[in-house]
Specification:
With 262 residues, the protein is an alpha/beta fold. It has ten helices and six strands. Strands 1-2-5-3 form a four-stranded mixed β-sheet. A two-stranded parallel ribbon has the order 4-6. Strand 1 and strand 2 form a beta hairpin. Helix 1 runs antiparallel to helix 2, helix 1 runs parallel beside helix 4 and helix 2 runs antiparallel to helix 4. The longest helix has 29 residues.
Length: 262
Amino acid sequence: MAEKKQHTIVAADTSGEKKTAVHAAPVGNAGGLRAGAIILWIVGFIMEVLAGLIALGKINLKIMPTLWQLIIFLVLDLVCVIIGSQLWKKANRIKPASKKNKTKFWFWNNMGVIACVIDFLPIIIVMLSSKDLDKKTKAIATVVAIIALLIGGVASYDFDPVSLEEQQAAIAAISADVYWAPFGKVYHTHEDCGALNQTDTLTYGTVEEAIAANRTRLCSFCARRDSIEGVRTDDAEVEDFYDVTEKETPADTAADTVDTAA
């Protein structure tokens, strides 16, 4: 496989300032990512079972206090849940679910939250009902488990899911490469977009690669510039950009006045 090239581009509105653009990473295999997520969630469940057996007095490692045994297994459980959820969300960017069935769409995009509840709620119940734990150990371990449940739930929840319909619409509307900054969720059709002025390094690739990299929305400034419609955009950010970079001209004001009067 040929090595991917690294390009240096010059944005028209940055006075000749050079920016480096590197090609996006390969999209990846959604099936493999999902399999990895499920394996990690199962390992997390095993950690929960071991913690439950310790809480019930069925096993005792005897190399450290019971409280520390519980905390270690709970932390390992949390790590498995979070990493598994990130893999699942990555897979959903590569091969998203259809939004036709909204209930199924929500469950598919938040399998990590469900896994988190399964991996922590039972152990919380077990520890609260255990007669083999002293009050201090029970209280501290339960609080740790509840905090882990909350952290895992927030980290696993997909606040910005992409649907199959949105992905297909973007791919159909944009055939050329798009650009995105190291941070954020927006991709651009122009490397000289004003919203990228403060970014020295850009990544470029197809829309599919952009969405796989968690850039889920097209910059509305670029959408208007290219007259692209029917694609998910980031209107709020661009409206802020316009407020900073554009001033209303007298002609615009007069036109607004006429429109208002009409």
